[in-house]
Amino acid sequence: MKVDNLDTKKIILRKLINSGINVSPPILDFFLNLDDPIKSVDQIIKDTSFIPNFNSHLTKNILKKISNTEIQNVLKRTLLKAKILPNKDNLTLQESSGIKSSSEFNKYQTSEKLIEIKETTESLQGIKNNQEVPKIEPISHDYSKVIPKFIEKKRKKTFESTKSSLGIYPIAKEYDSNYEILKDPTGKLYTNGEYKDFYDLTVDKFNQLRTLMKKRPDVSSAHNINNILRLSNKVEVSVIGLVNEIRKTKNGNFFLVLEDLTGQINVLIKNDSENRDNVKIAERILNDQLIYVEGTYNPREKGKSGIIYGVYVAKIDIPTDFEPNKAPVPLSIALISDTHIGSREFEESLLKRFIDFLNGKIGNKNLREIAGKIKYIIINGDLVDGIGVYPSQRDDLIIPDIYNQFKKASELFSEIPEYIEIFYSPGNHEPVRNAIPRPSVPKKYVEDLINIGFKTIGNPSIIQTHNVNTLIYHGDSILDLNVLIPELENNKPIETMKELLRCRHLAPTYGKKTQIAPINKDWLIIDKIPEIFHTGHVHINGIGKYRNVTLVNSGCFQAQTDFMKSFGINPTPGIVPIIELDTFKSIELNLKNNN
Questions:
Q1: Residues 483 and 390 in one domain
Q2: Region 75-90 average pLDDT
Q3: Which of 111, 248, 502, 595 has most Cβ atoms within 10 angstroms of its Cβ?
C-alpha cells in the first residue's frame, strides 16, 4: 500500500540526513511511490555505502546502481513520467540546462547541488513545524569580494629571520629533501561493488592480520577451526579468528563467535577475579577484529556446538621491544589537518600566524630556531571545507565554490618557504569518494597547489622522511570506536589511536559510520609499524606515545560549528604539533600565544 503523508516524509528525511545523505524533493517523491518507503530507504542507505563514487548526493544515477528489483521498476516508471530528471528530446543534462561551456556547466552543477542540500534541510524543518518550505534563490557566483586575486605561483625563497636582529638562519634550508612515499592507494583502488569484492576484502584482511598475529612470540601454532570442531574429547587448543559476534551473558561473561577460512566456533571468557587481564581485553573487543585465544575445547553433547573456555586472549598489538628509526639529521616535521578553508569558522588569522612562524617573523630566538628546523609539513585531510558534505553546509560557508576554496588555499600556502616539502592527503571534506581508502584529490582541483610544490597522496599513506616513517590517516573511524568502547572519548584521541595500533587496523569494525570500500586488498592494515602515527578528523589536538610510536592528532584551524557541537566536540584550533625527526621530541606550538 502506498503512503504519502507528512509523517512518512519526516521519517524518511530524518533517516537520510542522519546518514549524511542529501536528496531533492523529486527524489523524496520517488520514495513515496515504493510499497514500503521506510524499509526501502533503509536498504538504499545500506547499499549506497558500498558505492565507491557516492558523494552523499542521492541522484537518479546512484539509484540506478542499486540492485533492488522494486526500486529499479519504480525508477523506470518514474523516469518515463519525467518526474525525477526532465530529459526532453533525449538531451543530456548539460544540453537541457542551456549551458554550453564546461566551466559554466560546472558552476551550474555546483549551484544546483547546493540548492538541493538546502531544499532538503528546509523541507525537514518545514515538515517539523508544519510550515510551507520557502522558495530557494539561485546562488551568485561573484567571489571577487571573498577571494583576493591569486598572483604568486611559486613559494617564497626567503626566511624572514635572516633579516632580523636575531640573525637566525634556517638549518632546514641546508639539507636536501630525503623522502619516499612507501604507501599510497591512489590509482590502485578498483571495485565493482559485487559480493565477491566484499569476500575478497575480508579474506585479505584475515590473511594479513593472521600473518601479523603469528609474529607474536606468545602465539603458538593455532588450529584451524574446522579441525577443532572434529574433536570428540576435551583438549587444550588455540585459535586465530575474526570476531563474528560478541556479547555479554546474563552472568557477565563474554560470549564470542570466531571465524576463520574453515568455519566458526564459540568462545566463552569468564568474568572472574582470576581472569581480569583477559576480561580487560574482552571489554575492548570489537566485531570484525582479529584475536588469538587459548583455552579448553569442550565438544558438548552430540548435536550441540562445542565451545572454547578461554584462558588467554590477545590482540596483535605493537611489540614491546619496538625500536623506532631516527633521522641522522637535526630536522623536524610539522603535522596539521582540518584547516577547513572556505568555512565561516575557518581561523585564517591562526593559519597566517603559523606561516609567519615558518618564515621566522614571530617568536623569540628559541621559537625561530624551532621554525628553522622544519623541513616537512603534512596536511592530513580537510584542507578545504568542501561542498555538500553535510546538510545545510551552505549556511556555514564563506566560499561556496570548491575551486575557489582550493584557490584560497594555494594563495595562503604560497607564502611558506620553498625549501619546506608539503604533503597533502584527503579527508572526508575533500572532493573525493567518502569511502576509505581514498585516492589523492584529482588534479583539476589542486593544480594551483601542485604548482607551488604540493605532493598529493591518498589516505591512508606512509611517508618516509630521513628514515622515519609517518603513517597518515585522517581518522574517520575514531568516532566509531569512541561510541563502541565506553572508556574512549572524542576529546582524548590519543587513547583511541592506541586502540587502533593494538588492533593493527585503521577501521577494525565494519558497517558503522565509517564507509569502507570493497576492494580486493585491505589498505587499512597497519602492517608496517610507523615511527609516527598521524590522525586528524576530531579537531582535538593531542600528542602521546605508545610502545615507542609517537602519536599525534593535529587538532584544527576551525572554530566550533553547530555540526561539531552535535558530536560534543570542543575543538582546539591553532595548536601545531612539531616532531623532531632525530630525537622524536615533540613541541606543541600554540599560535594563540603572543610569543
A1: yes
A2: 49
A3: 502
